[in-house]
Amino acid sequence: AKVRARGLCVGYAREMDERYIASRKLKADLRQTLQDAGLTTMFQPMYRADGTRIECCEALVRWTHPQRGPVSPDVFIRMAEDMGVVSTITRFVLDRACRECMRWPGHIAVSVNLSAHDLRNHDIVELVADTLAATGLSPSRLHLEVTESCLMDEPLAAGALLSELRAMGITIAVDDFGTGFSSLAYLDTLPLDVVKIDRSFVRNVTSDERRLKLLKGTVNLVRALGLNVVVEGVETEEQLAVIVENGAADLVQGFVFSRPLTSEQILALTSA
Ligand code: C2E
Ligand code: CA
Ligand code: CA
Ligand code: CA
């Protein structure tokens, strides 16, 4: 029920039920798609809070099922994890992200999501190094996003991997911050640069003073530790205005500025 509630809300096959998601057929179809290189990627801009400039674009993987239509990545990433094939997706997205970023203006970075599995394997360090070498992208233009929950899986091992990646000059971001029930001490002990505050913090900031206080307090805490703040899931002008008035974000990502776009659209937006 959780997958359904979270994953299928925006534009994905709504009627796809739990049974089908768990079915062997969908898994077989995913396996085939991976073999055929049938995935694509979209890119969602992160803007400076004042809206003047795109600083980074997040790569978001897409799978359009031939019969079912678009499947939420929340659904098929989890499937790929269960099937032990998620590294194929990571490799694909990382490669595409670095290649496309090379076409964009030099001040724009690209951000790639890692899965829990990626953080449990040292292979990721070599994969990232190889991809940067193959595409020619500067490590300073690559960001990697790891969720709070996969950091908490094995914090010591994850910390060691992230330190190596960071030593290469890559920026490390914590994704979906504030959705887990983990202690905040890891913010100080793990090698991190950016915190992406989950969109659940944004909901109701315009109507509920306490929600706004929670967002402001969280942003202040993150900044006090020397980390940069991205606020995710900003959907309305009203939310944006409250965030800007309160100085509660360095970067803003959300439908208020832009939905995920093709690389060509990013290019058109940024090279004008
Ligand atoms: P995420 O990393 O938190 O990505 C942000 C998600 O929020 C994206 O959904 C994006 O389209 C959506 N979003 C952006 N702005 C707004 C907004 O203003 N309002 C709302 N309601 N939603 C917004 P998407 O593309 O469906 O991805 C869902 C999740 O799937 C991602 O959450 C991430 O956890 C996972 N995912 C996507 N691409 C990849 C990938 O290449 N690799 C891995 N490992 N996971 C991925
Ligand atoms: Ca993300
Ligand atoms: Ca997120
Ligand atoms: Ca998420």
TrEMBL record:
Has keyword Coiled coil? no
Q: Which UniProt keywords are given for this protein, alphabetically ordered?
A: Membrane, Transmembrane, Transmembrane helix
Out of the domains of life, which is the source? Bacteria
Report the residue ranges that make up the EAL domain in this protein: 23-272
Can you name this protein? Answer: EAL domain-containing protein
Q: Which residues of the full protein are shown?
A: 477 to 748 of 748
Q: Report whether Transmembrane shows up as a keyword of the record.
A: yes
